């Protein structure tokens, strides 16, 4: 079981997301946090917006803190719904639009989170999903090797 995303793994995830950002020709800021939403690594691509530095970090924080992708918070936080005003809590750190995703271990526990900002919400989500997809392939590598019989 993985306790938290390591720095080396965070760098790999950021590399995967950056390749997607380059593919769609949109500079991004990409952040990876641990399970508590504390920053492990962050990269600002050349030409990415300065505001995206805090937005990407806050997207990852939100996903780690609430164990869910940020785009799933949009509807519940609309006026009249149960989470209305959510984005104004937690010192303004909660983000209610797409680009943040939790990273789960094989037992379904949050061990980190991913946040991307710098384009349209759909682009942020696409780039973040590339990092999450890479996580799905590497998280098994952090398990102990099997003992041969």
TrEMBL record:
It comes from the Archaea. It holds the Pfam family HbpS-like. Gene3D superfamilies: Haem-degrading domain (3.30.450.150). InterPro entries: GlcG_carb_metab_protein, PduO/GlcC-like, PduO/GlcC-like_sf. PANTHER family: PROTEIN GLCG, SLR1406 PROTEIN. This is Heme-binding protein. The lineage of its organism: Archaea, Methanobacteriati, Methanobacteriota, Stenosarchaea group, Halobacteria.
């Amino acid at each position: 079981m993985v306790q938290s995303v390591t720095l080396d793994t965070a760098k790999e995830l950021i590399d995967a997301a950056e390749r997607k950002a380059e593919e769609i020709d949109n500079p991004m800021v990409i952040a990876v946090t641990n399970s508590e939403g504390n920053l492990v690594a962050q990269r600002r691509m050349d030409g990415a917006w300065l505001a995206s530095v805090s937005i990407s970090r806050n997207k990852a924080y939100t996903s780690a803190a609430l164990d869910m992708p940020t785009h799933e918070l949009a509807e519940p936080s609309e006026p009249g719904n149960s989470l209305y005003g959510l984005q104004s809590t937690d010192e303004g750190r909660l983000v209610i639009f797409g680009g943040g995703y939790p990273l789960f271990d094989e037992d379904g526990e949050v061990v980190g989170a991913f946040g991307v900002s710098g384009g349209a919400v759909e682009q942020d989500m696409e780039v973040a999903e590339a990092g999450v997809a890479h996580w799905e392939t590497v998280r098994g590598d952090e398990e102990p090797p099997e003992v041969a019989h």
